[in-house]
Design goal:
This protein has 298 residues and is α+β, with helices and mostly antiparallel strands. The protein contains 10 helices and 6 strands; from the N terminus they run H-H-E-E-H-H-H-H-E-H-H-E-H-E-E-H. A 4-stranded antiparallel β-sheet has the order 4-3-6-5, with helices on both faces. The protein has a two-stranded antiparallel sheet with strand order 1-2. The chain is elongated and about 90 Å long.
Length: 298
């Protein structure tokens, strides 16, 4: 196939599928209409075999998700050429009767199971949307888990332990009143010009030695010994603490919907597993034996 013809086909196809891509990403109902239409549109005929636009559209979406690429003309052309290469190689496999190969049949069966499984789970999720009560219950748990302390602190960063110890001595002499000045004059960190001010932060976002030191301080106190991290030696002053405010219900709702939906699907899947009639080949599958309790009965 000539390069110009490849490019022409590629541009024509992508003009047709561009709305479908956007609709698919937004889960708009209109995407179903576009997808149905794509089933009846031919994108190319390769060695007298016709291939539908719908097939390429799915391939394009998968490649875009795998590569995290933008929908640019260059990526469109690359993907279309990959699609043609895929077709030509698959046709060669058919010529060689590789579909009859046991390993190929096993791989095809695995792909079939995975595709059907994903489609079934998506259908289950669609049939069991989260209720408002479920979302509110999930929000209460979210608020409990989101409870944490935030800290407002300053620090002085130096490259030697002795320097840090000398600074602590100066703080002791001034009862900690000159921390801002000492930080501006001595700290090598980027906060030096702000008197070492780190603002409000979650200790979980700090390296462990620093976080542990901050958590062990009372507001208004500073570390009695230098704290070593990979950045150097720190003298830390804790100014204030506060309880962090969790996201509002509306702000957290998209996350809650995803969590509740995932849990509901998992529960339904577990129920189906329990109800399924499974017969194991015990020559291959060995089940773990339940260890009986050794505690005396009352």
């Amino acid at each position: 196939m000539r390069p110009k013809l490849v490019l022409l086909l590629m541009l024509t196809a992508l003009i047709a599928i561009a709305p479908a891509l956007a609709l698919a990403q937004e889960a708009d109902a209109g995407a179903d209409i576009t997808a149905d239409a794509a089933q009846d549109i031919s994108i190319a005929t390769v060695n007298n075999k016709n291939y539908q636009l719908d097939l390429f559209r799915l391939f394009f979406i998968q490649r875009q998700q795998e590569t995290k690429s933008q929908n640019t003309p260059a990526f469109q052309e690359q993907t279309f050429n990959e699609f043609l290469s895929l077709i030509v190689a698959a046709q060669e496999g058919e010529k060689r009767n590789l579909a009859e190969n046991a390993d190929v049949q096993t791989a095809l069966e695995l792909q079939r199971l995975m595709i059907l499984s994903n489609a079934a789970l998506q259908s289950i999720a669609k049939d069991n949307p989260p209720t408002e009560d479920e979302l509110k219950q999930a929000y209460e748990k979210f608020k409990e888990q989101a409870q944490r302390t935030e800290y407002k602190a300053r620090h002085i960063l130096v490259d030697e332990q002795a320097k840090a110890e000398a600074l602590i001595k100066q703080l002791d002499d001034s009862e900690g009143k000159n921390f801002d000045t000492l930080a501006r004059e001595n700290s090598s960190g980027p906060t030096a010009e702000k008197g070492g001010d780190l603002g409000w932060f979650d200790a979980r976002n700090m390296v462990k030695p620093f976080a542990d030191a901050v958590a062990g301080l009372e507001p208004g106190s500073y570390t009695e010994k230098p704290v070593q991290t990979q950045f150097g030696w720190h003298v830390i002053l804790l100014e204030e603490t506060r309880n962090a405010e969790p996201l509002s219900y509306e702000e957290a709702k998209p996350r809650l919907e995803a969590v509740v939906k995932r849990n509901k699907v998992a529960n339904i899947l577990n129920e189906m597993r329990e109800e399924a009639q499974v017969e194991l080949n015990e020559d291959i599958v060995k089940l773990k034996q339940t260890v009986p309790s050794t505690e005396p009965e009352e």
